[in-house]
Specification:
The chain contains 12 helices and 11 strands. It is of the alpha/beta class and about 300 residues long.
């Protein structure tokens, strides 16, 4: 069985093609990504613009044409924080259905945290994990103990929302940093369960960019999944990027697709979350919401076959 999953995020639209194998496992046949900054307008007005909706549909049509050559059994179209927070999400859902024939499923906060957990549970040998997914428009935090999900939620702050609202100068000022930290901590102070000893697992666009930069600069192995990043490495990289201009950050290969504008916001969220935990390092997961959704989909499909 082949499944295509298109994920509309806050910073980009990603598509992956999967083929199921035995024991609910799957192989990734191909993947594409197109930067579409839906989260930019959401942070300011909670509305998707007509231009953003048109751009989204153009990308979806392009991805549909690429998917055709794989002869998939199913195309699933999901969306996370940017669409979830949009007051006019129904306008996008209707336009997508009309123009592409695809039914857009908006993943709610708990589902997004749950899919992150499913992805980590199936790809990492960790029983106790604090799973943190810093996205463009939201951040998901989950706690797993002895392989079972104990806590899972989404907070409405992400790399785009923090950067666009608080970190607007070039270079960024100390006053802006303080304002951003205060805004982040307003969402974290009540989450006392984050103090539970557990492996800190980081995933999402911000973490992927950090892992990629440090991996390249350290001339390490190509596989990023399961790589470990220390707090010292994160602090050093943050200070370096903080004192660079937007133009200088844009020259970094891993940030060249527009992430240079929001990377510091994402790193700041990570930094503030880590301070609330006993962890001194982050284990990177290259698998997240999309893969968690796929694991769940194939598991259900196999159960139905058995019954």
């Amino acid at each position: 069985m082949k499944l295509a999953v298109i994920e509309i995020g806050s910073n980009s639209i990603r598509t992956s093609i999967y083929r199921s194998s035995k024991k609910n496992r799957f192989k990734t046949l191909d993947r594409w990504r197109e930067p579409v900054r839906l989260g930019k307008s959401i942070a300011q007005s909670r509305l998707l613009t007509n231009e953003q909706i048109e751009e989204t549909i153009d990308v979806l049509k392009e991805f549909q044409s690429r998917i055709q050559r794989f002869d998939v059994d199913q195309i699933s179209l999901i969306a996370t924080a940017a669409v979830r927070l949009a007051k006019n999400q129904q306008q996008l859902i209707f336009a997508v259905l009309k123009e592409t024939g695809l039914q857009l499923e908006v993943i709610n906060e708990k589902e997004e945290a749950y899919y992150d957990y499913v992805a980590v549970r199936n790809t990492m040998r960790i029983k106790d994990a604090l799973i943190v997914d810093v996205g463009g428009g939201s951040s998901e935090i989950s706690l797993a103990k002895k392989g079972r999900l104990k806590q899972g939620l989404s907070i409405p702050i992400g790399a785009i929302s923090i950067s666009d609202v608080h970190l607007t100068s070039d270079p960024i000022t100390e006053k802006e940093l303080q304002s951003a930290r205060k805004a982040i901590n307003e969402h974290l102070t009540s989450l006392t369960w984050m103090r539970t000893p557990a492996t800190f697992v980081g995933l999402g666009g911000t973490m992927r960019a950090l892992a990629s930069i440090l991996n390249r600069e350290g001339k390490r192995k190509k596989t990023l999944h399961n790589s470990i990043i220390s707090l010292e490495q994160i602090d050093t990289l943050f200070n370096r990027l903080l004192h660079a201009t937007n133009e200088e950050r844009s020259q970094i290969k891993e940030l060249s697709d527009g992430r240079f504008e929001v990377i510091l916001g994402g790193m700041l969220i990570l930094s503030e979350i880590i301070k609330k935990t006993p962890s001194k390092e982050i284990r990177f997961s290259n698998f997240g919401v999309r893969e968690g959704y796929v694991f769940n989909y194939f598991y259900k499909a196999n159960r139905q076959k058995e019954n």
